[in-house]
Request: fold
Amino acid sequence: MSADEGMSAGGEGVSAAGEGVSAAGARSSAADEILDIVDDNDRVIGQSPRGEAYARGLRHRCVFIQARDAAGRIFVHRRTPTKLVFPSLYDMFVGGVVGAGETYDTAALREAEEELGVTGLPLPRYLFKFLYDNGAGRTWWSAVYEVRCDLPVRPQAEEVAWHDFLPEDEVRRRLGDWEWVPDGLAAYERLTAFRSRG
Reply:
């Protein structure tokens, strides 16, 4: 769900930080979406349009939601080649950016429903939060959630080239074979460590 795209985490889809959909008009409106800008302690220190936040490397907030079906399989998808950020990469989360004044919990439900193409999901369960920083100016507070989705999913075709629910052992096997969005991979590694601690 690459946080760098996280528009879905407000109008965009597969990634968390914010990219914008393929239609030029939609990209403009996504770039104009207002985000809370936060400090090292996740305190709001200002607001900025998404496009400016990305261009200037301003820290903001994103949500990452791991969706599982009734059998416990993880929703995995590959982004379309037309995505502006991380085209054609795989992700094991849905999510996106948290809008100005929006709570992490509200954004998690909104993003999960938008990206999975469903309505009526239960409220995703909050697990933990971490500060993602790629060392090159892309940084955001990342709240990680999980949700069970027993509904038939209908991801947006302009955002998702392929999707399936995969057993966790297959996801682990694919980590070295497929190219994953970097923030989603960071969230997955932290989630794996979080679960191993019990």
In short: The helical segments are 24-32, 50-56, 104-116, 168-174, 182-196. The two ends are 25 Å apart (CA to CA). Confidence is low (pLDDT under 50) at residues 4-27.
